[in-house]
Amino acid sequence: MKTYLPKVDVNARKWHVVDASGQVLGRLAAEVANTLRGKNKPVYTPHLDAGDFVVVVNAEKVVLTGRKETDKRYMTYSGWRGGEKYRTVAEVRARHPERLILHAVKGMIPKNRLGAKLLTKLKVYRGEQHPHQAQQPTPLTLPA
């Protein structure tokens, strides 16, 4: 018996829009990651890209629970000695609020070439406006 391998139609990919205002960061990122991978489709296969495009708006209004706003820190490293920098969520939110969602989703997808390809289908914007109206994105329903 052979394993069924679905034909993934690139033209059948849908576009979804998510409003991040008032959403908890981790729960939002989990739903976005599942949609990017295609886990909500019957043709889901772990090693294929069967997912849809996701546009996230209002990235600066995402919510973190507990004391993560002040205690959670993001580390970057320049590659030079002493080049470590730590920033709190409040500092990241002030300069680049898109990176909060991007970092959370990136941690929930595979760490390989497939994951890098999936991340190109995620578009995150601060504010209500986005340049993807021509794709006619449908609202992505998130569980309450």
In short:
This protein is α/β, with parallel strands linked by helices and 144 residues long. It has helices spanning 25-37, 68-71, 89-95, 98-106, 113-119; strands at 15-19, 53-57, 73-77, 84-88, 122-124, 138-139.
By secondary-structure content and strand pairing, the structural class works out as alpha/beta
Q: What percent of the residues sit in helical stretches (DSSP H or I)?
A: 25-40%
- Tell me the major beta sheet: 4 strands, parallel
Helix-strand string: EHEHEEHHHEE
Quickly count the helices: 5
- CATH class term of one domain: Alpha Beta
Strand content: 15-25%
Commentary on this structure:
The radius of gyration is 17 Å and the shape is globular. It is an alpha/beta fold and 144 residues long. The model has no long low-confidence stretch (mean pLDDT 94). The longest helix is centred in the N-terminal third of the chain and has 13 residues. It has a domain of 94 residues: Ribosomal Protein L13p, Chain: A (Alpha-Beta Complex), CATH 3.90.1180. Strands 5-2-1-6 form a four-stranded parallel beta sheet, with helices on one face. The chain contains five helices and six strands, in the order E-H-E-H-E-E-H-H-H-E-E. A hairpin with a 6-residue loop joins strand 3 and strand 4.
